[in-house]
Specification:
Layout (H helix, E strand, L loop, with lengths): L1 H14 L3 H9 L1 E6 L5 E6 L4 E6 L2 E11 L2 E5 L4 E7 L5 E8 L2 E4 L6 E5 L2
Length: 118
């Protein structure tokens, strides 16, 4: 009986997740991008709202991330916030940034797409 109650409660909790919470949960994981010079960049999005940034296997720093209007926003701790678009193939693309409240979008050639690896 206790097991049945636990299963029903679990289903109710999952069913109560908002679309933004479901999107946030789908983002959690590791993403990687290699540029034309062979430099590899990795972002590890953790459940606690922290993203670990790595370059060529070395951890650089940690930043806070959130979902805002269906996009990932990564706060640099100062005034610049990176904006990443979540794609249907589970990859994410760095499309621009917000600085002092003004949004700037990168040219297509300057946008990086990170593939989900875990």
């Amino acid at each position: 009986m206790k097991v049945l109650v636990l299963i029903v409660m679990s289903l109710l909790v999952v069913g109560c997740l908002t679309p933004e919470q479901k999107l946030r949960d789908s983002v959690i994981g590791e993403y990687e991008f290699t540029d034309e010079d062979g430099e590899t960049y990795k972002g590890v999005f953790l459940d606690n709202g922290i993203v670990e940034e790595h370059e060529n296997g070395h951890k650089l720093e940690e930043r806070k991330w959130t979902i805002v209007n269906g996009e990932i926003q990564v706060d640099d701790g100062f005034k610049k916030t990176a904006v990443l678009r979540i794609k249907k193939d589970r990859s994410i693309t760095r499309i621009g940034y917000i600085f002092d409240g003004k949004r700037t979008v990168y040219l297509k050639k300057d946008q990086w797409t990170f593939k989900k690896i875990k």
